[in-house]
Structures are given as C-alpha cells and as structure tokens.
Write a structure and sequence with these properties.
This protein starts with 11 loop residues before the first helix and ends with a helix. It is rod-shaped. Strand 4 and strand 5 form a beta hairpin. The strands form six sheets. Strands 20, 21, 22, 23, 24, 25, 26, 27, 28 and 29 form a ten-stranded mixed beta sheet that branches. The protein has a five-stranded antiparallel beta sheet with strand order 2-1-5-4-3, with helices on one face. A five-stranded antiparallel beta sheet has the order 7-6-10-9-8, with helices on both faces. It is an alpha+beta fold.
Amino acid sequence: MAEARVNFWRSLSTRITLLVFTVSVAVFVFLVWLTLYYQQLENRNLAERELRTLNLSSQATLNRIIRYDYPELAQEVIAELEVHRRVSRALIFNEQGSVVFSNLKSEVGRLIEHAQLELPEAFSSPAGKFSLVVYEPDLDRFYSKTPLVGRANQTQEVATWTLLMTYEYDTSLKAAIYQRRWALAGELLLVFILASLLRVYLQHRLTRPLQLLQQGVLQLRLTNSDVDIALTDNDELGQMARTIEQIARDRSQYLSDLKNLNTAIEQSNECVIITNIEGEIEYVNRAFSDVTGYTKGELIGQNPRILQSGATAETTYERLWNKLKLGETWRGELLNKRKDGSNYVVWATITPVLDENDRITHFIGVEEDITERKADEEKLHFLAYYEPLTSLPNRFHLSELMQQVLAAHDGKHYGALLLVDMDRLQHINDARGYEFGSELIKRFAERLKQELKGREHTLAHLGADAFAVLLPEDASSIQAAKNKAEAVGQLLLATTEQPFHVMREELKISASIGCVIYPETNVIMHSKIEAERIIRSAETAMHQAKHKGGNSFEFYKAKFSQQVQQQFEIEKQLRHAISKDELELHLQSQCLHSGEVVSAEALVRWNHSRDGMISPGKFIPVAEQSDLIVDVDRWMLTRVCQLLADLQKQGKHLSISVNISARHFRKSDFEDWIDALIKEYEIPRKSLVLEVTEGVLIDDVSDVVAKMQGLSRQGVEFSIDDFGTGYSSLSYISQLPVHELKIDQSFVQSIGDRRAGDGVIETVISIANHMSMRVVAEGVETKKQAEFLFKTDANVVMQGFYYARPVEVTQWRASLT
C-alpha cells in the first residue's frame, strides 16, 4: 500500500511553520504594543512634568504680579500661556468662582461653570493649598488648577485665586512609532531570529522525529517484520520510538505464532469451529470442511444447527448450554450429520471466550471425528464379547453372564451349564480344510439355535469346536436341574443325527457334552472365580464324554477334577524329576528259546523322592499328552547309549531297543540329534533299536517314512511295537525300513485259542519271515507259550517274565555274566 500524500496546508511542517509565524507575530505585536505603550506613557509623563513645570513658573510669576497689583501683566501671562503649543485655555478665577482673567472677554466676571470649557467636577471649585493636575484620557487632555496668593485687603485677609489651564496631549501612534522606530526594528529582527531558531529547533526536535515515527508506524502497518526507527534520544519521542519498535517485535512474534497456530489448526486432523455469541459461524478449519462435506463459504454465517442429525439426546444439548452459560467448558459426544446426509460421531470440546468484563463473546469448538474409533470400539467390544465366526457370546461373555447369575443367586434354585464339543472336527479340517471346517461350525451353531428356540437359555461359542448352553436357575432341586439338563443334552445329541450340508457336501458329525449343575454350594465367595470353576468343571465332564468315544453326555463328578489335578501334579513333578535325575533305567532281557540273551528292551522307572517308585502306567500317559515325553525319551536314549558304550568296551555285542514317541517325528532335529548322540558315544549303530507303534503312521506318513529311512541309512534299526493292535496296514509297513516286529502280549496270552492267538501269531511270523524281519514276542510268561513260539519259528526272540523280569542296570549287567 503506497504512502498517502499529505496536503501542504495540513502537513506537520507547514503547521509548525504557521504556528511559529503566528507566535512570532503575536510576540512582535506584543512587543510593539508594549514599546508604544511605554512610549506613550513616557510622553504623558513628560507632558505632565512639563505642565507642572509651567504651573510652577506661572504660579510664581502670577503671585508676584497679583501681590504688586499689576493686572495687565496677569492678562499678558494668560495670553502667553495660551500661546503655548499645548495649552489650549488659561484663566484665573477667584474664590467665588468668578473669572477674573481670560483671553475671552465674554468669560470675565462670569462664573467658572459658565465658561466655555468642559471641566471635570473637581475643577469648578477653587484650588487648595497645592496644585492639582488631572489627565482625562477620553479627551487626551490635562487639567490643572494652581493656587495663587494675592495681596491682603483692608481687613488683612489674603485673597486666593486659582489658575486654571487645559493642556492638550498628543497621543498619536505615529509619533510614538517614530520615536521608537529603531527599537521596533530591533525587536522585529530579534523576533525573526528567534522564530527561525525555534523553527529549526522544532524541525529537529519535533518535526523530523515525528516524521521518523510516522515512517515507523507506516512500516508497522505495511509489513510484519521488525521496525527500526533512527531516533536515539531518550526523550518522550525516543521512548515512543522504542515502544513502536517493541510493538513491531511483539506483533511480528505474535503474527509468527499466529501463523504457526493457523497452520497447525488448518493442518490439524481435529475440526475447529468458532462462532459469535449469536451462534453464527465465523471460522472453520479445513478438517471441519473435510469431515462435514461443507465448504467454508457454505458454513460461514450459518448456525451449527445445520449439522444436527436429530440423533443426539436433547438432554445432551441442555447440559451443553448450562455449562457454557456458566462460562465453563463442555466436553462430550455429538452425533452430527454430514452434507451428504450420513451421520458421524465427534468428541467435542466447546469453550466460551470471555472479554475483560467476563462477558461471553465467542464460542470455540474443537471436535474429533471418532466415527471410525467408535466403530472400532464396537468391533473390539464385539470381539471381546462375541465369537466372530458365529456371532455368539464368547467364553469371556459367558463368564460375565454367569457371574451376574451367581451374584443374584437366592440359594433355592439350580441351573445347569452344558459344554458341547464337536467330535473329530480336527480330522475334518485336515481332510477338507479350515474353510470347510469353519462353515461346518456355523451350520452346527445354527442347528443349536434352532433346536433351543423357545427355551430360556444362553448359547455361547467358546472357540473352535466348543459351545456352551447356560440354562437358568429355575429348578427347585439338583435332581430337577439334572433332569432338565439331560433332556436338553439328549436333544442336542439327537440333532447331530441329521446330516449337515456344507459346500455341496453331506456329512454327519457327533458331539460330546459335559454338564455341571450350579451352584454346587450356597456359599459363593467370589462370583468370578466360581464362574470359571463351573466352566472348567463342564469342560472336564466334556473331556470324559470324549474319552468314552464321543457322541455321549456326561455329568461332572468331583473325581474328574481330582484326576485332572492328579495328572497336572504328575506332569509338574515329572519335569522336576527329569531335571533332578530321579528317573532310573531298567532293562528286560530278550532271549532265544534256549535262554540266551541276545538283546534287551530299555524301560524307564521313576523313583520319587517322597512317594517311592511310581508306575510307568501313571506318568507315561501324562508325558504322552505333552512334549514332556520327548524329554523322557531323550533321557532314556542318552542313558542307553552310555550303557551300549560300556558293553562295547567289555566285548558284549548286544542291541537294546528303546520305545520312542511319535512326537519325535514332528521335531525337525530328530535325525541330527540321534546321529550326534551315536557319534558322541561311538557305539555300533545297529546296537540301537528304536521301537515305534503303528500309530506313528497316522500322522504325515511321507514325513515319517523319510525320517525313518534317513536314520536307517545311518544304520539305526526300527521295531514295530504291539504289531497287529493298531493301524495295521501292510502297504504302509512295507514302505518303512522296519527290521523287527514285536508281537503284542495280548496275542501271546491267547496262545491255545486257535483263532484269537495261534492263528494271529503264525500269521505275524509268516509276514515277518517273508519281509526278512526279526520277530520278538512280548509277554511270554509260561513254558507252553515259549514252546509254541519255538515250534512256530525257532528264531523267535522271546521277552517276558518266563525268562527275565525288568531290573535296574547294575543287576541286569550282572545277569549277563
């Protein structure tokens, strides 16, 4: 913006010049007046002194003339006085006021009042003892009366006369000016010099600084940068310059902060809106326009009510305005409507802006679009409380519902919790894939919903293949609750008899149901703990139903939990036993018919530090349920290799077989670990026989075969334990690098039964001979059994109490001598 031009007559410089000129003229006029005044005063004083001098001289002359009685001389003196340039009249009157001498004959003898004079009142009477001079400014004239003393009369009375004169005084300025012309010229010069000096001083001390201040103010108006005013004086103007500079710096900083704030607000993801006290929108940022769909032009001047969706409760607006009217900030959720008609949720913070008198002038609103967050929260809430696959309450939700039920328990009624688990779902997933399995789970859930329709219940999906049915506490006794629960359970089992149609495929499944009656006690100390305990009890009952083969219903019994607890304790203590080396290696010799020991089977025993010897039948099944069996097997393999190394040093070449779990074949390092173990103890590879059951073939057959072949190529031999009792498939067994078949003791114990014992044994031996495998018969306890096996095949190796019992290593080694 260009600098505005100032009119010449309105400029500060012109005004100061005019002011100086005016003041100078006024001063000069005053000096002139004062000079002329005193000049006129001086002239009047001179005239008065002249008049008094004339009076004195005339008084003296006339006194002598009158005393010596020369009246004609008195008349001459009067005439001479009137000849004076300033004396206009002169006369003498006596005590009676009659004119005695006058140049005007007509006045002689007449009273002074009748003389042709304009006399002040005081001059109509005779003079006193002293002369009297009075100046009449209106007439520019002096009046004087002087006492005259005449001669004494016959009575010796002295006659007193009065000399009256009028003295004209010239008051013209011209004369005064003429008299003071040089003084006036000097005054004029002095005033001019002083005015010039004052003009220069004011120009330097006022006009120029003000011009600099004007430039600084103009720069302050036109720019946002700092201002530098070239004034170094420490006077008021200098301080004003510093103040303007500070204002510029403050404004520059303020504008910088304001720009940063505006940028931050404009780039902020939060919506910002400012309204006046009438509710008219004065400002919105870009985020506000983006969220609402309105442009700034469409919003400015509007009322925020255009965003109302009608879904926000009126009480919310009431609380909002109650807060704002008190000058307080309100925070809360608002459900608004966009320009396109869609709703969105904001978390709003609205604050009133107060002026210095604490009156509200504006409202500032900061809003965060939490639509997605609310949706996420709802989704998280759904995921926290419901199973996504079936949209049924999940385990956590079920637990909370049970807590509420237990908290409201009246101690007089009973309910039931049924846990429904789909049988063989994992096999179906393996065969058809998890997508197929998920679809089957959804169909199963729909079937449960359909069957339970019309009954008061809560159906929950605990995850994977497990569902729960919570029946309310409406039975007056435990038996009534059991009857109701069993009826529902049988109904659910029956519903699985109908086939399911999944992905154009028809299949049938069964279910296992565990049930627990709640509450088991009328004293409920902690509803959360009790709810979890009830769910676990139902799970325990369900597992018992599965152990029975599935497709069955089982009530919870306390002994189930005792068994589970016992298994848990065994597993915990077994881990401790492995680390503390409480396990013991026992061996049972394997002999020919003659009793010659040709090999042995390694067995593990647990000598508990407190409970003594624990049967393998207790801890091996527990270990099999977890990877703990791998640790047990590796402990045994290590001890067997140590033993084989010692026997090798003694020149005894025997083989020892070790039972290993199928879990070993799921370990990627199984082959390398066996190879490293054999190399560490430097034993003949054929001396280590690994016993596996036919169940090992149920898992990934190709992977099992590959690992067995890899170990076989290293020289390790394999034995099929309990042959004929499990997954007997000659096609699979023919693919395996098996060197030995072990006839299960159940067949040996049936020797004498041609169909159940003799025939099976003869068949197994025949198969082994045709496949060039060694045969080991387990459980040989009688001579009859030994003789039958020997007659069937003289090379059969026998293992059982008839030949040797399992003993610890030292005793077994001693038996070899």
